[in-house]
Amino acid sequence: MKQHSLKPIMFVGTCSDAGKSIINAAFCRIFKQDGYSPAPFKAQNMSLNSYSTPEGGEMGRAQVVQAEAAGVTPHTDMNPVLLKPTNDKSSQVILHGKPVGNMSAKDYFGKQNTKEELFREVIEAFKRLEQKYNPVVMEGAGSISEINLRDRDITNMRMALAAGADVYLIADIDRGGVFGSVYGTIELLPPEERKLVKGIIINKFRGDISLFEEGKKILEKLTGIPVVGVIPYFRDIKIEEEDSVVLDMKNNTWKEGKINVGIVLLKRMSNFTDFDVLEMDDRFNPYYIHTTDEVAKADIIILPGTKNTLSDLQYLRANGMAEAIVKAHKDGKKIIGICGGYQMMGMTIEDPNGIEGDIPVVSGLGLLPVVTIIEKQKITRQSAFTFLPAKKENVCKGYEIHMGRTTLQDNEKEQPVVKLADGTKDGYYLNNRCWGSYMHGILDNPVALDDLAGGFNMKKGATSFNYAAFKELQYNKLADLIRGHINLEQIYRQLRIDRVHISLLTGATSDKSTHTG
Where in the chain is the domain with CATH 3.40.50.880? Predict the structure, then answer.
């Protein structure tokens, strides 16, 4: 059944980690279930967790999750600007999926011309999405009440105004101070922005939601804006999250009767979502480690990706972790490296152009007979491949995001971890206890996951895990939860109202009428 056209909808927050990304994903799935063709959009994202699109562009993983929930192919138009921190003061700027240089926070936020150019680019990306999808489900960043950054905003309310979106403010009640945060946030908005806020969503409520009925009335009286939902705190629905703040909430304990996987906690760790599948597979107990004692206890040690391989390797040497990992290998532990972690496992890493900093070369851990040179060109691509091509035929999927070229030492024989569809090979498989690859998402494939579990005596009944089917189930469970705790009828009614679309760039207005009824 053909559905009526809907206005764009935007979820913003009173603070960071209020739950915007998850609720956005829920609405992407809800709109899909209800017969619409939604797509996510976040103008600017800051994250070290990124993804390579089919076209070879790079984007934030939060919008990839939302695209999965919407049932559409991820595209860089869904996240036109991505900032990847390289150190405490600067970030690599990714525009439309391609790196355009590194900028300090002062330059990025302080140069008005730069922000205006980026804003024009994100507007064009949004327009392209709006022509293909309905509705566009937008996400803000951090808090919308950062009034010191308002004139440089390209992500929050300025974007909402340009898109003509209905805005819903999400507040994290679990943090406390929800009345002050909601009221203060709305009061700090100028009138033209406040008019866009059509509802308030209280998120992460613990206990009996009916006890907040009086609280809803108080908020509505204070703000003049309806509270359209109170979402309960939940842990039984597993949706991938990209914000590194969630690492503090993840398991960090060794468990008996499981394959204990210690993931090395690097300072510039990227793409920790590579290991979410291990949390879902009952055979494994993944946790993040940063001491030598934790290395010794783990059955498997994984070196993850990093935005700064040389600096993080120096960090591991300084705190004794590098020596502990090499010892663990000698003691028969299984050591796996993904992307930057793979580079660390080799003999040397060279950075002749100073791309990662002022360290020209460092010695690797010496576990694999490979050498790496950091290069200016960034490789970003999705790949179909076979895992351990010398042993079996299988169809797997993954993606690459790296600025290094890794080659074998002289006279070393190829022992690739994967063979790509175009015939190229990647990684080095020393044996079942030691291998590395550039391939992000490799463990999402059952054949690789089973290989990781190989050599351990697991209890009877432990079986392969289908992560793709599991994620589909989680998106549906999330949609069901949100439907049960939000006034969806009111939101739909508001989204169908005829509207005037205002372009901040041109100052022009154009009627975009929709049919109701």
Answer: 258-458
What pLDDT digit, counting tens, does each position of 368-384 carry? 999 999 998 889 999 89
- Domain(s) of CATH 3.40.50.300: residues in the chain: 9-41+112-238+471-511
Q: Is 15 among the residues known to form the active site? A: no
Distance between CA atoms of 300 and 302, rounded to whole angstroms? 7
Strand 39-41 and strand 136-139: the pairing is parallel
pTM: 0.83
Contacting residues for 374 by C-beta, under 8 A, at least 6 apart: 309, 310, 349, 350, 351, 352, 353, 355, 356, 403, 404
Q: Which two tokens stand for residue 201?
A: 């969503």
The residue with tokens 């525009």 is 95
Task: Express each pLDDT in 103-162 by its tens digit.
Answer: 776 777 666 677 788 999 999 999 999 999 999 999 999 999 888 888 888 999 999 999
> Per-residue pLDDT for 222 more than 90?
yes
Nearest to 407 by CA among 343, 322, 336: 343
Determine whether 28 is an active site residue.
Answer: no
In sequence order, which residues have a C-beta less than 8 Å from that of residue 27 and are 6 or more positions away?
Answer: 9, 11, 38, 137, 482
Cα distance between residue 63 and residue 67, in whole Å: 6
| 396: Cβ contacts below 8 Å, ≥ 6 apart | 384, 385, 386, 387, 418, 442, 445, 447, 448
Report which of 72, 75, 201, 80 is spatially closest to residue 134, judged by C-alpha positions: 72
Element (H, E) at 311: helix 309-318
Q: Annotate 213-271 with DSSP letters as a single string.
A: HHHHHHHHHHHS--EEEEEEP-SSS------GGGGGGS-----TTSEEEEEE--TTEE-
**Amino acid (one-letter) located at 88:** D
> If one looks up domain 9-41+112-238+471-511 in CATH, what number appears?
3.40.50.300
Model pLDDT, residue 359:
85
Annotated catalytic residue within 75, 96, 329, 440 = 440
Give the residue among 79, 86, 185 at the shortest CA–CA distance from 139.
79
CA distance 424 to 443: 20
CB burial string 170-202: b at 16+ within 10 A, e below? bbbbeeeebeebbeebbeebeeebbebbbbbbb
Is the separation of the CB atoms in 398 and 385 below 8 Å?
Answer: yes
Exactly one of 96, 329, 339, 402 is catalytic; name it: 339
Q: Which two tokens stand for residue 430?
A: 């020393």
Joined tokens for residue 112: 């008005």
Where would I find the H helices in 143-212?
A: 157-163, 178-187, 191-194
Would you place residue 242 in the very low, low, confident or very high pLDDT band (cuts 50, 70, 90)? low
**Bridge-partner residues for 197, per DSSP?**
167
The dihedral region occupied by 339, where left means phi > 0, alpha psi between -120 and 50, and beta the remainder, is left
Q: Please name the fold of domain 258-458.
A: Rossmann fold (3.40.50)
Residue 449, pLDDT > 80, answer yes
Crossing angle of the two packed helices 321-330 and 309-318, in degrees rounded to 10: 80
